[in-house]
Design a protein that fits this description.
There is one protein chain. This protein is of the alpha/beta class. The chain has a single domain, classed as Rossmann fold. The protein is built from six helices and twelve strands. A seven-stranded mixed beta sheet has the order 2-1-3-4-12-11-10. It has a three-stranded mixed beta sheet with strand order 5-6-9. A two-stranded antiparallel sheet has the order 7-8. Strand 1, helix 1 and strand 2 form a beta-alpha-beta unit. The longest helix has 17 residues. It is globular and about 45 Å long. The two termini are 15 Å apart. It binds glutamine (GLN). Glutamine binds next to helix 5.
């Protein structure tokens, strides 16, 4: 089983851990740099990206994680975790940091007040078995992507029709929604498959 870390400074750590275990991973919580050494991949959970940014600095994890991401460590970020993986953040706090692992611009709290939280079905490229029931909670969306970024999912109805909400760039996956709050493990399974493939490529 692959050893997958969940960044455990803040946010919905427990749900991701459960979903990853259901998808066939060994899960380790990561709170310090030494714990990062024991994992081959990392999940950045939802929560609050400004708080996460502060805690990453306080726990001396920002640079160690950035280095692993630059070296190609597989990572998956949901919601605030998507923001943490982005190269550019719109409507962030001025001192907010992100890893810049995915060449994309994300807008924080993009769906606006009236639709703080909502659910909708989204077709996800590369994930079989019908549309995925996505849950959005004060979510970002993706406004701009670089050439090496693949769109995996878009909203397909309502005022946000066409907005990008799931992307992949090499070993890095991000969703604006929260698959860990549902019982449908397909997104976590997709990530575990990515992690296995990356391990296979390393030999
Ligand atoms: N609005 C949060 C942020 O900007 C993200 C919300 C979430 O992760 N559910 O970081």
């Amino acid at each position: 089983k692959p050893n997958i870390g969940v960044l455990a400074l803040q946010g919905d750590v427990v749900d991701h851990a459960r979903a990853l275990e259901a998808a066939g991973a060994n899960v380790r919580k990561v709170r310090r740099a030494s714990e990062l050494d024991d994992v081959e991949a990392l999940v950045l959970p939802g929560g609050e990206s400004t708080a996460m940014s502060n805690l990453l600095l306080a726990f001396d994890l920002l640079e160690p994680i950035r280095k692993r991401l630059d070296d190609g460590m597989p990572a998956y970020g949901s919601c605030a975790g998507m923001i943490m993986l982005a190269r550019r953040v719109v409507d962030g706090r001025d001192d907010q940091r992100s890893f810049g692992a995915i060449d994309m611009t994300v807008r924080r709290n993009a769906f606006g007040r009236q639709v703080d939280s909502f659910e909708t079905d989204v077709e996800l490229t590369g994930i079989e078995g019908g549309p995925y029931r996505t849950v959005f909670i004060r979510a970002p969306w993706v406004e701009e992507i670089g050439d090496d970024v693949e769109v995996i999912g878009r909203i397909s109805q309502g005022p946000a029709d066409g907005r990008i909400v799931a992307v992949r760039s090499g070993n890095h996956l991000a969703t604006a929604f929260h698959p860990e709050v549902t019982t449908d493990a397909r997104v976590h399974e997709y990530f575990v498959t990515m992690v296995r493939a990356a391990a296979g490529a390393r030999g």
